[in-house]
Automatic annotation (TrEMBL):
It comes from the Eukaryota. It is a multi-pass membrane protein. Gene3D superfamilies: Mitochondrial carrier domain (1.50.40.10). The keyword Transferase does not apply. The lineage of its organism: Eukaryota, Viridiplantae, Streptophyta, Embryophyta, Tracheophyta. Solcar repeats lie at residues 4-117, 126-217, 226-311. It is found in: Membrane. PROSITE patterns: SOLCAR (PS50920). This is Mitochondrial uncoupling protein 4-like. Keywords: Membrane, Repeat, Transmembrane, Transmembrane helix, Transport. Belongs to the mitochondrial carrier (TC 2.A.29) family.
């Protein structure tokens, strides 16, 4: 039973991840949009936070930067296809495949194991708080396992936005991981791991726990019978909840993972610099594509999972 839950969750996650990869790529590019280039020495500071010994000229240099034009997910997608070709929408798909195999297989399987273990032996039900606990534990462990693939995926997805001279041009996920280890050390594979784990805990708790809760509520209300309609409604609602809860952490995670060495001192430094330079709403950059990706991803994930469970029920 335990092993089967990992297989079911892994297959469903790989299908969902690969089928929605272009949406995830657009989300990553939007989250990086507006980030200061790594080569610049310009730092955006509010007047109250300017260094006391800074000269007026230096202060002007710090505060007078060209504004970055806003761009929407559709326009960005069209620009990517025009400038890099349609295949660019699947940049990093090999890393997505590895990430889903490691991260999502672990979290989906472990969530089912914990849910079964913690359920009331008589009624078979589990409270919402315990579902959230199961999601937090499963998501954290899954993220720790899958972080190297996550870093590789973010870099491969973001590579096309860099100037030609700065592109990493990884041949695939294996080359990306090998290059990171060689150029930046093994620890670079777990860059941003604290953020990844925090995000994964939030996403898994919000996504899996809310799906189960929405599904139970729909079935108890008797509005829809257990079937495709129930699964689609419950999963899309779960995807929206997960998007709202995780987007700020996801933006910081993306920027930390994609950074050149020394760009940020850590997650907090990245968050502070992002808010100072671009405003608090920068933490919700890419929210529309996040919802547009999380919605379909979660629908495909749970609809596929329910069908796989039916197929493997007798095994």
């Amino acid at each position: 039973m335990s092993a089967k839950s990992f297989v079911e969750g892994g297959i469903a996650s790989v299908i969902a991840g690969c089928s929605t990869h272009p949406l995830d790529l657009i989300k990553v590019r939007l989250q990086l949009h507006g980030e200061a280039p790594s080569s610049t020495t310009v730092t955006l500071l509010r007047p109250a936070l300017a260094f006391p010994n800074s000269s007026p000229a230096a202060f002007l240099a710090e505060t007078t930067t060209a504004s970055v034009p806003k761009i929407g997910p559709i326009s960005l997608g069209i620009n990517i296809v025009k400038s890099e070709g349609a295949a660019a929408l699947f940049s990093g798909v090999s890393a997505t495949l590895l990430r889903q195999t490691l991260y999502s297989t672990t979290r989906m399987g472990l969530y089912e194991v914990l849910k079964t273990k913690w359920s009331d032996p008589e009624s078979g039900k589990l409270s919402l708080s315990r579902k959230i606990d199961a999601g937090l534990v499963a998501g954290g462990i899954g993220a720790a396992v899958g972080n190297p693939a996550d870093v590789a995926m973010v870099r491969m997805q973001a590579d096309g936005r860099l100037p030609l001279a700065q592109r990493r041009n990884y041949a695939g996920v294996g080359d990306a991981i090998k290059s990171m280890v060689k150029g930046e050390g093994v620890t670079s594979l777990w860059r941003g791991s604290a953020l990844t784990i925090n995000r994964a805990m939030i996403v898994t708790a919000a996504q899996l726990a809310s799906y189960d809760q929405f599904k139970e509520g729909i079935l108890e209300s008797g509005v829809i019978e257990d079937g495709l309609g129930t699964h689609v409604v419950a999963s899309f609602a779960a995807g929206f909840v997960a998007s709202v809860a995780s987007n700020p952490v996801d933006v910081i995670k993306t920027r930390v993972m994609n950074m050149k060495v020394g760009a940020y001192e850590g997650a907090l430094d990245c968050a502070v610099k992002t808010v100072r330079a671009e405003g608090a709403m920068a933490l919700y950059k890419g929210f529309v594509p996040t919802v547009c990706r999380q919605g379909p991803f979660t629908v495909v994930l749970f609809v596929t999972l329910e069908q796989i469970k039916k197929l493997l029920r007798d095994f």
